[in-house]
Design goal:
The structure holds two protein chains of two kinds. By secondary structure, chain A is α/β, with parallel strands linked by helices. Helix content of chain A is 38%, strand content 10%. Chain A is globular. Chain B has nine helices and seven strands; from the N terminus they run βαβααβαββααβααβα. The chains are: A alpha/beta, B alpha/beta. Chains A and B meet through α3, α5 and α10 of A and α4, β5 and α5 of B.
Chain lengths: 360, 251
């Protein structure tokens, strides 16, 4: 009988043994991590909304989740979370496209100043066009907006220069751009702020070579400032909520995800210490029969996220604890301010009682 | 004679002293109930809330409301959240910008925090207080007025240290940096606005700071200060009574 490569291939190479037969929770398409993440390694996350889950679990598993833009410690963590502190490493909101990532880095370092730097709503509220949902109701005024953006850019620079591991989740190929300078908006103008103007705003659906080039340039930009950092790329399994292309949203989603998936392959082949982690396959694989999607067939269930994180921790760390439902990340240490406030309250209360009791 | 029950914190003392000095000047009698720390700590039970308040206070209030016609209640219970927040400089100095105060409080490098988050914090702080109004509603359906605390005085750090921290010379708080004066004023405005909104929701009318009691910056006139960084004196209390009288007559 003739010999051939499949004769000696491992079980993971065979669909029936690796995908169709095992229990759902046992399917493991990772095989081996390209490197290990140590508990002391500072892990930064950015990308689409799926990256939020990763951030949450990395922190909950006790790894050093890098947050360079925290809420002031006087704020309650739950309240701060509503303002997207700690959702990602810096308060950039969802970064859906690789072009958006590249421009974000360039803006943080003063290398790109978009023509549209703010949207001022009719009620005087200031909206950041590049993170329009970063806080409920937008910014109160221009001074606050400018100060916040300055701090935000500084936080991004710190992220770039301090991170040990950068986890980026590619989300979309579709975007809206400013016709004047190509600035990419994460959300179509007019949806969460601003006014849609067809003379100013154009729809783009990035091609594979553009996604690859932007991602390579973005990662090179980070490496130039942080030469030893490791890169983990993932593709968001969350389908498009809507397409602006003239085709069915299912077809548009398949193009988008296929393009991003191939882009990861291309980039990993050319960028050292970069790896692709198959969270997309873990969530969307046929072996799940769609079980890792909620009833809307879009949202990823917590069980799906746990499967992803279990495999990430197994193959990319020496972590031996259990993964479970992770709480939201704590945006800041409220200790110092809380202690000071308690002390001030004691002083004031004592003083008020003395006043009330008729201090001479 | 119409009667007013006054119920609240130490800010009512200035009002009480002003009233006691010349009771015949006012077309009503007043009955004061000052809340001290032990009242806050013990509490009393209102259905649906966890607070339990002390029995003597309840008995006294029952007597005050039960034996006389009481058309008005004056409270001063929501406005003091700003003062602990604005006493010390935060370990991470911060600032926020409002339409009335669009500039930095000083030249110190400060973290700019979202005004909306500050407002939310103030709102939550007020909602987290004991259910004072629900407590009073057990005794009366009288119209309730809430007296705002006076704005901060433009006192120097030295005066604040001597008068606010002067109780115990060994107290560890004495070495801590004091909050910037403009930031104190911003915080007072922030919490005053939140108190106005909170009172509106509760159907309580606010007795605002009399306009002639403030300097050009909006701070309490030095001659109306009781000598510390928080309380006003009897003259200020008299100005409040004048406003209160007008509001009662209007009602």
């Amino acid at each position: 009988m003739a010999n051939h490569p499949y004769k000696t291939a491992p079980a993971s190479s065979f669909w029936r043994q690796a995908v169709a037969t095992p229990a759902m929770a046992d399917v493991d398409p990772v095989l081996a991590g390209k490197f290990k993440v140590a508990p002391t390694d500072k892990v930064a996350t950015a990308g689409s909304c799926f990256a939020q889950h990763l951030a949450r679990h990395i922190a909950a598993a006790g790894f050093s989740y890098l947050v360079t833009e925290r809420a002031h410690s006087m704020f309650d963590p739950a309240m701060a979370a509503d303002y997207n502190y700690g959702t990602f490493t810096a308060r950039f909101g969802n970064v859906y496209t690789t072009r958006q990532l590249l421009q974000l880095l360039h803006r943080a370092y003063g290398l790109f100043i978009p023509a549209q730097s703010e949207w001022i709503e009719a009620d005087g509220t200031w909206i950041d066009p590049f993170r329009p949902q970063i806080q409920p109701g937008g910014f109160e005024n221009g001074a606050e907006y400018r100060a916040d953006r300055q701090a935000h850019f500084a936080a991004i620079r710190r992220m770039v220069e301090e991170l040990d591991v950068f986890v980026f989740t590619l989300g979309l190929t579709e975007a809206w751009v400013d016709r004047r300078d190509g600035a990419v908006f994460p959300v179509c103008p007019g949806v969460s702020g601003g006014t849609f103007d067809p003379d100013l705003h154009a729809f783009v659906n990035f091609r594979l070579h553009e996604v690859v080039a932007d991602l390579q340039e973005a990662l090179q930009f980070i490496r130039e400032r942080n030469k030893n950092c490791k890169i983990v790329l993932t593709v968001s399994p969350v389908p498009l909520v809507a397409t602006a292309d003239d085709r069915h949203v299912l077809v548009a989603t398949t193009y988008s995800k296929s393009c991003l998936r191939v882009a990861c392959e291309e980039v990993v082949a050319t960028v050292p210490d970069a790896t692709y982690f198959p969270s997309y396959e873990i969530i969307t694989g046929l072996y799940t029969h769609g079980a890792y999607f909620a009833d809307d067939l879009r949202s990823v269930t917590e069980a799906g996220v746990e499967h992803v994180m279990r495999l990430f921790l197994r193959h990319y760390t020496d972590y031996t604890g259990a993964t479970g439902s992770a709480a939201a990340t704590t945006p800041g240490d409220a200790g110092a301010d809380a202690r000071l406030l308690a002390e001030a309250s004691r002083v004031i209360a004592t003083h008020c009682d003395e006043e009330a009791l008729g201090r001479p | 004679m119409t009667n007013i029950v006054a119920f609240g914190n130490s800010h009512l003392l200035a009002v009480q002293r002003a009233f006691d000095a010349q009771p015949s000047c006012y077309p009503y009698g007043m009955n004061f109930f000052l809340l001290l720390q032990h009242h806050y700590n013990q509490g009393f039970h209102v259905e649906g809330h966890d607070y339990v308040w002390d029995t003597p206070l309840i008995e006294n209030l029952e007597r005050a409301f039960g034996t006389k016609t009481v058309p008005f209640v004056v409270t001063s219970i929501f406005g003091n959240l700003w003062s602990p927040r604005s006493l010390f400089e935060s370990p991470t100095p911060y600032d926020f910008f409002t339409p009335a105060f669009p500039d930095p409080s000083d030249n110190t490098p400060r973290e700019v925090v979202p005004l909306r988050l500050m407002r939310e914090q103030a709102r939550q702080g007020l909602k987290g207080l004991p259910p004072y109004i629900a407590f009073l509603r057990r005794f009366t359906d009288a119209k309730i007025f809430e007296v705002l605390p006076p704005p901060p005085v433009d006192f120097t750090e030295k005066v604040i240290r001597e008068n606010v921290f002067g109780v115990d010379p060994n107290d560890g708080v004495r070495g801590k940096p004091i909050c910037n004066r403009i930031l104190r004023l911003k915080l007072w405005h922030l919490y005053a606005d939140a108190t106005r909104e909170h009172c509106r929701e509760l159907g309580v009318e606010v007795v605002d700071v009399p306009p002639n009691t403030r300097d050009a910056d909006g701070m309490l006139l030095p001659e109306l200060c009781s000598g510390d960084s928080v309380h006003a004196n009897n003259d200020y209390g008299a100005a409040i009574l004048t406003q209160l009288t007008a509001l009662c007559l209007k009602s």
